[in-house]
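Progress narrative, Year 2. Work on CHAT domain-containing protein from Oxynema aestuarii AP17 advanced from sequence curation to structure prediction during this period.
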Amino acid sequence: MAIVATVTSINIDRLDRHSIAYFEPIWGDLQLFSARINAQTAPDALQLLQQGRELFQAQQFSEAKRQWERAASQLQGETDRLDRALVFNYLSLAYQKLGQWSTARTAIATALSLLESGDRTDENSPEVLSILAQIFNTKGHLEQQTGHWQPALENWETAHKFYTQLGDDEGAIGTQLNQAQALQSLGLYRRSRQVLEASTISLKNQPDSALKVTGLQSLANALRGMGELERSRELLSQSLDIARGLNLTEAIAATQLSLGNTARAIAENAMALQEQERAKQEFEIALDAYRKAAEIAGSPVLQSRSQLNQLSLFIDRQQLEYTAELLPEIEGSLDRLPFSRYAIEARINFAESLMKLYALKDETRGGDRRLLVGRTAELLATAIDTSRTLEDPQAESYALGSLGKLYELTGNFEDAQKLTEGALGLAQKMNAGEIAYRWQWQLGRILAKKGNRNEAIAAYRGAVNTLQSLRKDLVAIDANSSSVQFSFRETVEPVYREFVDLLTQPTVRPTEENLREARQAIESLQLAELDNFFQEACLDAKPIQIDRIDPHAAAIYPIILPDRLTVIVALPDSSLQLYHTLESETTIRQVLDELQQNIGRRSGNNQLVLELSRQVYDWLIRPIEVQLEYSQIETVVFVLDGLLRNVPMAALNDGRQYFIEKYAVAIAPGLQLLPSQGSEDLEFQVLSAGMSEARQGFPELPNVKEELERIQVQLSSQLLFNQAFTSDNLQQAIAQFPFPVVHIATHGQFSSQADRTFILSWDRKIKVKELDRLLRDRQRDVSNPIELLVFSACETADGDERAALGLAGVALRAGARSTLGTLWRVSDRSTSILMVRFYQELTENVGISKAEALRRAQLSLLDDRRFKLPYFWAPYLLVGNWR
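Result:
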């Protein structure tokens, strides 16, 4: 788990430990109100307001609350509604920080009602507008934290209007950033982009100032949170240049820290794509930025954040030799921290790094490990004491849970359980699901280690259910961001895998309910991966279960676990079946990787391909092959996991024939699919687009012209070819007529990273999110969906284990009922033959399914001596509804 701190401007705060930066309310000028406070009846009110603000900014939220409650009490008899409204606005902020949501809602409602009562002649005065802006910003923050994104958006829009009327650029830009995040969480991605661009323009039009520096930095952090890393780096570089020109030392340090976080995120992306040299360079850039930030930072907060980021990066890269001299420096910075929530979070952050260091230390070095455990326990005990002194239940929950994790790590499961249950209770009391799921997961691990399987299953079930309820919030946390302790691969994915592991243990006979839960967990993991891929909750149509829509289809759900490959099978009118292959994850991955590397190359070892494809057949199909025949199965639908996604199931071999010779094959990204009208009802009106000429560094595809021309002869179609295939023309054609089939024959790439998933048009690359937008625009007409989306010359990114996510993601995000794509780029001659045959089968055989039409087209290549190798016919995948 990456343990990284982040720095934001004075008006940007993190949502708990997330990477999302939210604009905190502008405080306004208390001098505007001091003249109206009656010196005789409320002599201390102004002072109490100011003291509360200082305590709040020092993250001493409980003390701030007390000061503001005293101010509210003093002002109770006052007639000036503005003063009282301001105090209740502040109180709502404090209650929110303390997780007291109901009280926070009452306070902000009181503030608003005070402004709406009494004399309205001054409603456009700067004083009223300033307080209204703060109230609606606070109210938006409250709605967001309680999961109500639409009301949050509406309140932030209102706050933005008031800040704009005031000419308050800082407030206006800050609330635009909030709106962008809310829009993204609501799935309104184009509007989110427009709001961000507007805030960028507003900032660029500002003269160079401290406001511009912090505004650019905040916008860059938000973009990093949305996965737009190069744009984030560009804006941070601009911020740094301005800060240097103005000699703003602390702003320079803060921007360096953000640059380090962005470089680290870029490095982690490169690692996922096996771009080792790029990753190394970016990690060095990140470390250099962290060092510079720590060296020039004047505040212990900024300095400690920079040092903690360095430490976590050294540990993640296992460069342990560099940690020794950094540890005492961090200790010194922690001792200088002000008494605040951040002081608690920093100690927890440090403790998390020490726990990772403990796990990496050689067990023979017992003394070192004991010292690490002792120091970690001290840090967390101090964090717990401080959180209780500050009366901060959120911080206390994190501290208790982290200490529980330490005890779990050292085998003290009884104390680990008690501490974790305490942390969970606090999180649930605050309705803080993003905290609670972690402790439910941790409790499940501890109970499993204690041998309490049923209780462990219940805890994991709670964690999974909580994650499901957080779906839109989780996708707003950037998986590529290294600004906080969040990593989908490390803090979300394992919850599902470990839950399935518990439910399907080979030594325990599972119940039907266990298998249904395991199958549902596999689906939830699939969708969570796709949400994380796009940073958006992407499946919003009404789903139906695939094993209920076709009486001649079987569904197979394999999942790779640490000690085995587990397979769940659903047959029509039958109980779920379970079987295992007891091989290590390492062995399974080696076989799949070797098969993928050879089958996807024309020069690959074809004998080895046969041997490995038979081995995978033995794992997935052999135990169920008799039942498939007995049940008269025609189509087998795979819900694939991990590296299995990059292996064509059609090419599995039983020793006599390929799987495709017996069954049609489809791939589903989950148990639930968008409904399909079926090919028998499909009107074959096709929008065809493609390029045959070399373009933008990509080679020519000479057979694309023949492929598209033959489709045009067979079917009613509109053609965009070569120069006519521009992004604007594609958008226009899609908007003008609801083509049920869209066929794109051009270079393209599917990757596990949305930024690297694209198709090539004549004028430029169309990245997946833009393609999604083009296709989804016409999806508003739900009576005329895209029934079939075809990519006939695209491929998955080489070296990217999760590249097939790109294809599945395009399929789901576009709302296409079925998508046909390829795992690797093959001869465009064989592709042209297969595509023409595919459409021929669909048009000439009434009632044929798309999967069966593809099967027959693949067999036509297999029967052609020129294309007998699986390299030519195996990579074609039908994703989604196969009917």
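Confidence is low (pLDDT under 50) at residues 1-22, 25-41, 476-486. DSSP finds 35 helices and 19 strands in the chain.
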